Amino acid sequence: MSQLTVERVSEDRFDESVRVSNGEIELVAPTSIGPRIVRFGFEGGHNVFRVFDHQREDWPLIGGHRLWHSPEDEDRTHQPDTDPVEATLLEDGFRLERPVNEETQIGKAITVRMTPAGTSVEVTHELTNSGLWPIEFAPWALSVLKPDGTAVMPLTPQAEADSLLPDRSITYWPYTPPGEDRLEYGTDNVYVHQDAECDGPLKIGTSAGDGWVAYVNDGQAFRKDFEYVPDATYPDSDSGAEVYTSSEILELETVGPLRTVEPGETVEHVETWTLAEGVTEPATAADVSPDIV
Description:
Blueprint: E1 5-11, E2 15-21, E3 25-30, E4 36-37, E5 39-42, E6 64-70, E7 86-90, E8 93-98, E9 106-114, E10 120-129, E11 135-145, E12 150-154, E13 170-172, E14 183-185, E15 189-193, E16 202-206, E17 212-217, E18 220-226, H1 235-238, E19 241-245, E20 250-255, E21 259-261, E22 266-277
Antiparallel strand pairs: 1-2, 2-3, 3-5, 4-6, 6-11, 7-8, 8-9, 9-10, 10-22, 11-20, 11-21, 12-15, 12-17, 13-16, 14-15, 16-19, 17-18, 18-22, 19-20
């Protein structure tokens, strides 16, 4: 039977880090910055995340998986997570917590929990309003992934075929033509292809009623499952899932409901990450289903 290992390690790029493994998959997060996860993959295999070798001077481009809050705002959202975090080791994972940001008065924490066997891990994101007045925002979980893959965004019908009201939506950012070559529209899915030779960025959002998104690359599928609340309001024209891509990366993003968070209140957003092998072409939703792992 597999056994969990939770330990403090030294990581090449970030030095002091924490790691959890069950012998099949492993996950690593630094404590020198964050909260941020910089490695997720099969043990001994490649990392699904893109992590940059050096930090840019104009913006701390790091990569991996991070926690922001939506809707996006240059002053409020773009606060670099470059300060050390407090890491607490748990029996089945770890918790990363950073001090309250003085600019936003929002505290962040990420808790990782792994089962003794299997290829899934639960990642809980927390945002706490530590200010003196209510703030409206939504938790926003962003995974920066390696190039040359394809994102899968399901658009399964959420209502009966004879319904008189719409049941799905696609949102386009201003720099994204709907007919872009990197976008492909299937019967139940939208596919976003990462292109290292592209001329500029692209971003779309979907209503995300299916509660999952995935990325297929290097013969593997990385899938993120999350709770979608049908009656809630979501940011970005009601987008619960979003994909951004440029010549360097593809970001697989999920967003929680938009709400007014009272002083001292904490909101959570939980993702379940699953890895699957032997996936080359994401033709259908079944190709990236947890049932195949």
